[in-house]
Amino acid sequence: MNILMVLTSHDQLGNTGLKTGFWLEEFAAPYYIFKEAGAKITLASPLGGQPPLDPKSDDPSAQTAATTRFKADVESIALLASTAKLATLNVADFDAVFYPGGHGPLWDLAEDKQSIALIEAMIAAGKPVAAVCHAPGVLRHTRNVDGMPLVKGKRVTGFTNTEEDAVQLSQIVPFLVEDMLKTNGGEYSKGPDWHPYVLVDGLLITGQNPASSELAAEKLLGMLK
């Protein structure tokens, strides 16, 4: 069972002068779920090497058992510091792909030709694709073989407009995940803000927010077993 986890390489929060990146919990929780299931995990990013951590995800208030475990895990910290370059990977080597969120993916992975091609090839090969929180943004330009948006007619979720309002970044992000999924024809739905909510439709698994990362990872594992 080979699972690819794709992280952002983008660290600038628009023109605010603030930093962004990937959200620690959304990486750590799925990572350990996959690891404990005996999966071989490959980490990748557009630029390779150390992906930028969203500093807000390092706040004491954002810590979970998984993030605490990761910070004490020297081997996994080293693995994260040396992610593979997305362009060097072969879809045939993986059984599934998981995209953790954080605001970073809205700028790079959503527009990244390698990431778009990877997702389209995974789906075409009958392999599941999971994305949580802001990471469903990576589906912005993905298409089915018929040229229609990949999410068209699919039950999908992702970071809500009200959650984006709550973190006061609705005017900063390049696009709103909820609006994009609807515009692309997705059958978007959501649960209460900040509560776990995950949808599975065919090979596509989407989670609403950081609280959804564990459940999304479990759903992905369930499809592989």
Descriptors:
single chain; 225 residues; alpha/beta; Rossmann fold; 7-stranded mixed β-sheet; two-stranded parallel ribbon; 8 helices; globular
Describe this structure in words.
The protein is an alpha/beta fold. The protein has one domain: Class I glutamine amidotransferase (GATase) domain (Rossmann fold). The chain contains eight helices and nine strands. The strands form two sheets. Strands 3-2-1-4-5-9-8 form a seven-stranded mixed β-sheet, sandwiched between helices. The chain has a two-stranded parallel sheet with strand order 6-7. A hairpin with a 2-residue loop joins strand 8 and strand 9. Helix 1 packs parallel to helix 8. The mean pLDDT is 97.
Summarize the structure.
The protein is built from eight helices and nine strands. With 225 residues, it is α/β, with parallel strands linked by helices.
SSE blueprint:
Blueprint: E1 2-6, H1 24-36, E2 40-45, H2 65-71, H3 74-80, E3 84-85, E4 96-99, H4 104-107, H5 113-124, E5 129-132, E6 155-156, H6 161-166, H7 177-183, E7 187-188, E8 198-201, E9 204-207, H8 213-224
Parallel strand pairs: 1-2, 1-4, 2-3, 4-5, 5-9, 6-7
Antiparallel strand pairs: 8-9
Helix pairs in contact: 1-2, 1-8
- What is the mean predicted local confidence, pLDDT? 97
Largest sheet: 7 strands, mixed
CATH architecture: 3-Layer(aba) Sandwich
How do the helices and strands follow one another from N- to C-terminus?
EHEHHEEHHEEHHEEEH
Strand content: 5-15%
CATH top level? Alpha Beta
- Rg, alpha carbons: 16 Å
The tally of structural domains comes to 1
Low-confidence stretches: none
Described by the principal axes of the CA atoms, the overall outline is: globular
The total count of strands amounts to 9
Strands ordered across the widest β-sheet: 3-2-1-4-5-9-8
Assign the structural class, choosing from mainly alpha, mainly beta, alpha/beta, alpha+beta, or little secondary structure: alpha/beta
